Fold this sequence. Notes:
- With 543 residues, this protein is of the alpha/beta class.
- It has 2 domains: 3-31 and 195-537, CATH 3.40.50.200; 36-191, no CATH class.
- It contains 14 helices and 19 strands.
- The chain has helices spanning 20-27, 36-44, 55-67, 117-127, 160-176, 226-230, 274-284, 326-339, 354-358, 368-390, 417-427, 486-503, 509-516, 532-538; strands at residues 3-4, 9-11, 72-77, 96-111, 130-135, 140-144, 181-192, 210-214, 245-252, 300-306, 310-313, 319-325, 345-348, 350-351, 394-398, 434-440, 456-459, 463-469, 475-483.
- Strands 3, 4, 5, 6, 7, 11, 12 and 14 form an 8-stranded antiparallel sheet that branches.
- The longest helix has 23 residues, at 368-390.
- The radius of gyration is 22 Å and the shape is globular.
- The two termini are 25 Å apart.
- 56% of the residues are buried.
Amino acid sequence: MFIKHILATTLIAGLYHPVAQAQTQQAQHDTRLPSQNTEQAVRKLPARASAASTASSKARVQKFNIREQKFRQFSVKSDQVPENQKEQLKFNAQGRAEVPFVAPNTIILQFKKDVSEQQIAAFLAERKLVVVRTYPKIGAIQAEGDLSAYFKPKLTDNNANDALLRGLVTVIKDFKADPRIRNATPDLVLRDQTSHGSTGIQITNLLTPSDVVLSDPAAPTEVVDWGVTDIQADQLWSLPGAQDGVLFGVMDVGFARYEDIVFLGFLPDTDVDDHGNHVAAIACGRHDNQVGIKGVLPHCLVRARSGDVFFDSVEGGQVLDFLVLFSQVLATLEKFVDSQDDVGTFNVSLGYNWRSNFGINPDLPESAQWRTLVASQGAFLVPLLELANQNGRVIFSAAGNDSSGLVTPIGAKFASPFNWAAITAREKNIAANGVIVEAHDQDGNRAPFSNTGGHISCPGVNIFSAVVFDPQKQISTNAYGTMSGTSMASPYCASGQALFKLVRPGYSGVEAVDCLTTSSDNSSSGAPMLRLQQALASCPAKP
Length: 543
């Protein structure tokens, strides 16, 4: 099977404008990537924990960063959280829940473009920092030191949260004030982009899909989900090029080998989870096996990577929630974006879930400290977008699911660091290869949970696809279920872009995105809904 060199990876994070040439010229003067000398200087640093992908080192890094980590907790009151989203937090008798928020005494730092090996050594000595992990391609490190002085309470504090937030913001400002440092961020916790409840529509926890069924070999059938026809993918399957093989890259919570998904280079220590399989099968559900579903791409191999994550489980092993440190996501993304030369697009379904976990709206004036934290993380992803852009790759991210029950939906920019990076990279003319995806339902209405401000909208409500756990919560190779979220919309748009490129091979990844956003059909939020036939009509084949 001929494999086109395309990666379509969906990320849980605006509109593409055809200014790639101007952006390339501007980026030469405004790059966020390190010089070769700085990259080599970072690469030489001895790191206490390796980001290598071997099973043994993964377990070691995972244990150091997550399993024995005593997080700084954020205290949430029950009356701050929307009623239909309270079930995921464990409130005590006083109506409070402690939410893991940030790893203590660790910080991620990006050096300025031309910082020397001697300057880095001097900085580490002055700050009494030990390097935990390195990110050479973006000139960054994760370091550990005593940061407790930043978090001292004051008599004027209303509660412990005040000292925590003030300390985090002060850490960022203090380290960025150093002339050798471009960006700094504490090592915050990210979560799955889960939609927890919504009025008038069945939204289920992405980790506990509804209506789980098993395929029946005695009654072979392949389901075409409504999302496939909504984006008009099925209308392209008979066109020249559409049946060519393609690699689709997915970074997600976890995956498992499955009857309806063909993985390429599946790592033996990959974490197991429903979410990754659901996302992967939306794009790559097999068309040739008479079971399961038909994905957007007729002949597709999945290049899957899971972040080093910690699963919060209950008795019996059912996964309820997962946590992942930003430092781990950054390490996985850096390797994936730079090393997967045979793939061309990416997806990460991670965010903060602001309202369900913290009871806050990041768009409100009083949430300035929270926005500072998002921007501090997103600043590390801008150079990764730039690196991906140099390699011809497009990254799709979900807009986020924070808007249930709100009169004014939350904007996507501050829903995750990936969204912030996608928007900022465009605003700064660094790269236009980050694509934020909203979700809509079968009537073209914005999904009630979906944040706004995305570049495009795709199906994300009651999506039928593969899951890992059967109705008895046992690992299965033939279970299917319904999920909802912008996490489902993102792979529809990403694989739609990959399918478009198969039929229109003369277009670059970013040019293909521009074609997709020319749709004249908008969701109720105003975002263009993916219509592949319209994209083909707007962008004829190149000679």
